[in-house]
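Table 4 source record.
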Amino acid sequence: MAFTTRLSDPVRSLAAALLLGVGGLIVGSVLVLLAQLAAFGLGLELTPLSSITISLILLQGVAFGGVALAYSLVRNLDFDYFGIRIPSFRDLIAVALGYVTAIGVLIVSAIVITTLSVEPGSNQVSEIAAQDPNVLLLLIPASFLLIGPGEELLFRGVVQNRIRESFGVVPGIAIASAIFAAIHYVALTGGAGGRLITITILFFPSVVFGSAYELTDNLAVPALIHGAYNATLFSLAYLAFRFMEMNPNGMPAGIVF
């Protein structure tokens, strides 16, 4: 990938990457909290659907996109730095292969969890969806429109690129994936052990996203893989909730978001 600025020293590069990744989460969380307080002050009752919509727009959209934009302005970077372009046929093949690999990693993780009889942490989205499964129907298109693009722009386009400048490709993928997985800790419920299990699981599809980015030099590729991956999970979760409604005694396997 082409870089328009000088290489930073390793410590500074890692610190900046951590600050950018965590900063995007903090900014988004603050914006979501302010929106919820504003709604409360106006006497509006937020439904599960409206709560998810606010979070999607303000976190993945405004916060993640805003942090990435601010970063590019501060360092005077253009689109070439991030590698944003319409996918070619080769890129689409990479999307398909990346999607299959990410889902394969998820299946292997599920088998390991079942074999070891361990309990992963639960995503807050699943708790909201338990109140209104239709929330998941919103999240399916949002995976392609906001979640995939927003998270990949920040964690691959900004965080991974920043680390890559000083540490190289492989450490860039690994460290960025670890940061991406770790920030999900606050979005999980359950004990610390269960949350760490889920974070470990999330690390591996994140490596797939990061590898696809490096191999294609096109941010649209991991964004599409990520979107398809999440959309698949949300679709399966929706079907699982509907199955449970029809079969109250049925206990479908848990899905890790």
